[in-house]
Write a structure and sequence with these properties.
By secondary structure, this protein is of the alpha/beta class. The protein has a single domain (2-154, 187-272), classed as Spore Coat Polysaccharide Biosynthesis Protein SpsA, Chain A (Alpha-Beta Complex), CATH 3.90.550. Helices cover 30% and strands 25% of the residues. It has 10 helices and 15 strands. A 7-stranded mixed beta sheet has the order 7-4-1-8-13-10-14. The longest helix has 14 residues, at 259-272. It is globular and about 75 Å long. The two termini are 21 Å apart. The relative contact order is 0.18.
Length: 273
């Protein structure tokens, strides 16, 4: 499936980084966070991306325009017309990336609506350019096709920001430092959508996908849940960025494009289905 990635927001809670660059280009382990997101999808064969650009979107275009050059050794002949010959392919060879300016001030719903023609009447995946997970996208797609509804949303339990206390009376019987939240699920940002979803969207800057469109899909019985029980993390604050960089240095949970890891994730899903 094609993968639509929302990349246009200002990332105001990460202003220390996003004053100069768009939030999806904020680096984790020396690579933009959106690169990590795209690698997750590519691990499952989804390598055609539609990037919904907005704030400083030209920098995202420039990043991918120069990607081959920056990832490879090259030969440059000075004094001639500008050209460079790269000497080796990189793992992202063959990715197809559509960079679409969806407006500086547009909300998420209008950004999605404005790439409708590129989806071309097919099912597609949707996510944000700032969240990673060790999610099995094959299992997500199967779940979506099984129920036949318009939209599937991934529910996750984020890590708690604080240590969790289990108490009996005044006695602490268990302490867990920063565990997963046990109560309730939140939007994990990995969707599968049928093209009917565009009927719920408007080409108006104020259309917020997570408000009226998802609320109406829910009321119509067209929104289904895919529960992800593994790990998930987004980058909203400097602290989130620090956490992800620390995790990358110590073996990132979302690095499922490693063949052995990806095979293990797929095997777990197959065994449980």
């Amino acid at each position: 499936m094609k993968v639509v990635i929302l990349c246009g927001g200002r990332g105001t809670r990460l202003a220390s980084e996003t004053g100069a660059i768009p939030k999806p280009l904020v680096e984790v382990g020396g690579k933009p966070i959106m690169w990590h997101v795209m690698k997750i999808f590519a691990a499952f064969g989804h390598t055609e991306f539609i990037l919904c650009l907005g704030y400083k979107g030209h920098l995202i275009k420039e990043y991918f325009l120069n990607y081959d050059l920056h990832q490879s050794d090259c030969t440059i002949t000075l004094g001639q017309s500008i050209s460079a010959m790269t000497h080796r392919a990189h793992p992202e060879h063959g990715w197809r990336i559509h960079c679409v300016d969806t407006g500086q001030e547009a909300m998420t719903g209008s950004r999605i609506k404005r790439i409708e023609s590129l989806v071309d009447g097919e099912e597609f995946m949707l996510t944000y350019g700032d969240g990673v997970a060790d999610i099995n996208l094959d299992a997500l797609a199967i779940s979506h096709r099984t129920h036949g509804k318009i939209a599937t949303i991934t529910g996750v339990r984020p890590l708690s920001r604080f240590g969790e206390l289990m108490v009996e009376g005044r006695q602490v019987v268990e302490f867990s430092e920063k565990p997963q939240v046990h109560q309730g699920l939140i939007n994990g940002g990995f969707f599968v959508l049928r093209p009917d979803v565009f009927r719920y969207l408007e080409d108006d800057d104020t259309c917020v996908f997570e408000r009226e469109p998802l609320e109406q899909l829910s009321r119509d019985g067209e929104l289904m849940l895919y529960p992800h029980t593994g790990s998930w993390q987004c980058v909203d604050t400097p602290r989130d960025l620090q956490v992800l960089n620390e995790q990358w240095a110590n073996g990132a949970f979302w690095k499922i494009w490693d063949k052995d890891t990806c095979r293990t994730v797929s095997g777990i899903a197959a065994a449980s289905s």
